Amino acid sequence: MSGGMRQTPLTCSGHTRPVVDLAFSAITPCGFFLISACKDGKPMLRNGETGDWIGTFEGHKGAVWGCDLNADASMAATGSADFTAIIWDAVNGSIIHSFNHSHIVKSVNFSADGKYLLTSGNEKLLKIYDLNKLEQSPTVIAGHTSAVRQALFLNDDKWLVSVADDKTLRFWDRVTQRELRTIELPAAPRGIELSRDGNVVTVCCGNKVSFWDVGKVEKLKEFEIPTKVNSATLHPDKQVFVCGGEDFKMYKYNFESGTELESFKGHFGPVHCVRFSPDGELYASGSEDGTLRLWQTTVGKTYGLWKCVNPDSIENVDNSNVHLET
């Protein structure tokens, strides 16, 4: 472990089922925020630095598979097994609009300018909704032959990227709705992430994590991990990446060399999602065990709730409110 110190995660309880997706906002005048999607159907908003519970979005009638926050954290989006994607007012928790789908919605993503919402899932389609024209039919992009796991806006919102159970990674021109490139993968990819600067797409597939140059649409590097990987996240400065998967462990690697820097048991179940905070000081992970955990990028640094004199004193702090009805 770095500096000989033990990694002491902050455990955020409150969810009652597996936590399957999470997303950070950008840094706002009020700090930054974290949203989590859970199979309990009750996505939660937290303070991104401390993990403190802010509120629960009540309204879905099924498991929530995907979540996102717009840059200034004024709006949240969630996708659910109840065949809807919902846009929420993230300040008061009310529903702004619900978009009906014909199947499970697995992924939601705000455009960089916050004007559009991209949804994908078991319909095998990508759908783009104009948030200024909520009643308008979405732009629909077809091409995948199986359920889409995740889709993101790319390249200043001019492109899209998606991964699906048809074992492909696809890049699309958003304006023409044409496929720019399809990459066949050896297995069904688990998830993707766009780097904070928008230049690199991280792809998890089998026991490998690969990184793709957005501008050239080509693979930069690929590393093998000791387990089947469900999620990976690249640090904003691109020095390290963190990933997690089926063996309950968190792994940190040097991005340039692929050298494993540290690994430790992080959860009591497979890790489903992991993301760096926008300032890179911490990363959050969500697991089958129903918890969300916050980890320090630099162990022992005074930051957020790690301002205790004795790090052991926060070992089992439940820093979530138990009263979840907003």
Roughly what percent helix?
under 10%
Largest sheet: 4 strands, antiparallel
Structural class: mainly beta
Give the termini distance in whole angstroms: 40 Å
> Strand fraction band?
over 45%
Please tell me the CATH architecture of the domain at 190-290 by its name.
Beta Barrel
Low-confidence stretches: 308-326
Task: Give the helix tally.
Answer: 0
Q: Could you outline the blueprint of secondary structure elements for this entry?
A:
Blueprint: E1 10-12, E2 19-24, E3 33-38, E4 44-47, E5 53-56, E6 64-69, E7 75-80, E8 84-89, E9 95-100, E10 105-110, E11 116-121, E12 126-130, E13 139-141, E14 148-154, E15 159-164, E16 168-173, E17 179-184, E18 189-194, E19 200-205, E20 208-213, E21 218-224, E22 229-234, E23 240-245, E24 249-254, E25 260-265, E26 271-276, E27 282-287, E28 292-296
Antiparallel strand pairs: 1-28, 2-3, 3-4, 4-5, 6-7, 7-8, 8-9, 10-11, 11-12, 12-13, 14-15, 15-16, 16-17, 18-19, 19-20, 20-21, 22-23, 23-24, 24-25, 26-27, 27-28
Pfam families: WD40
GO molecular function, one term: RNA binding
WD repeats: 57-98, 98-139, 141-182, 264-305
Care to give the gist of this entry?
By secondary structure, the protein is mainly β. The chain has strands at 10-12, 19-24, 33-38, 44-47, 53-56, 64-69, 75-80, 84-89, 95-100, 105-110, 116-121, 126-130, 139-141, 148-154, 159-164, 168-173, 179-184, 189-194, 200-205, 208-213, 218-224, 229-234, 240-245, 249-254, 260-265, 271-276, 282-287, 292-296.
